[in-house]
Amino acid sequence: GIKMKYKVENLNDVCRVCKSKNLYKFLTLEDMPFTDDFVNSSQIGSEFLYPIGIYYCKDCHTVQTQHNVAVDEYYEDYQYSVGESQFASDFMKGIAEKLTETYFKNETDVKVLEIGSGDGGQLVPFKELGCSVLGFEPSSFLVEVAAKKGIPSVQGLFNDAAISMLPEAFKEVDIILLSYTFDHIPDPIDFLNAVKKILHKKRGILVIENHDLQKIFERKEYCLFEHEHSIYLTKETTITLAKANGFEVIEFDVLPDEKRRANSLVFVMTLAGSDLTDKAIQNYPLPEYNTQKLYDDKAAEIFEGIHKFEDYINEAVLQNKKIAGYGAGGRGIMTLAALNNANKLEYLVDKKPKSEGVFAPKYHLPVYQITQLQTQPVDEVIVFSFGYIKEITEDLIKMGYKPNQIISMLDILKN
Question: What is the pTM of this model?
Fold first, then answer.
């Protein structure tokens, strides 16, 4: 009788975006955990496991999950941050500079609200550029971390009711920013309606960093199908979603590919009728993404990738190789959870493990600091945080590992 921390609250039977019932389930990953549901030794076996079904809406073409999970406690205790990565700080700084330069060149007192602001890392460069900043973040732990950086935050989940929690000065804002938060929102339409109430009518921009469905498919990156994610956008479905809800998309790919994070679609929306609508992108046709066949084909490729991963591990074990995984974030946890032999890895390491003495959900691999790779050396390190592979490789070479011992998960999936 261990209390389940998360549960499936309900199942939708309509599209999250257009409310159509015309949905097609093309992929199911059985018994998948939450990405951040690490357990200690006494909790092993009590974690949440549930199938992840991925659907395609035949009317608006948005790809989505249909189960909603109760996550209030989960985010209250959430501790994810990108840590001390130089690449991540450059990315955040780049976003702040590019947006202020492009849209607010000679403006004073630009107000920036970040929803799902985490440890405040993305708001720091905006503040340094002279903007007024405020975070909105459900995790009390991260709100405290942000405060130490001088970034004020409101604690809570942002929705229509939460607008009343905003200080007077932020009842109208110029930039609303979401980094990998929009795709966690169960009702994107409600969310966009709330944004309309506070976004500056003439010059306001809504900036969203989301996972890119095209990249997920190209790389067989099935680990991004998570309980926490509700919708998966392409450039085409982003434009459809914007237009149907009184917005226009005015820019994609705010930073060039090599400066963006591993799977990142960054787009800028403005309210229909704002001073920026002359920049509106009218369409981005992806005709093959509007056929059921594409989704069946992609699901087959994903399962082929999973089998390749399993074969790779079996082969290494046959050669008496010891393998560790680098990255105990969502990518590592979910990639391994879909395999049938993830327990053959020795352990996982992370730059910022959730805490001491924890195990990954489902297969219960121990999670350690990176120094474990020195105290308990392995023959190969599979890197799940492949967006940071250059930095990781440099760190591991200093520990005595050779480049050919460091393998990106993408190489295994696409081999």
Answer: 0.92
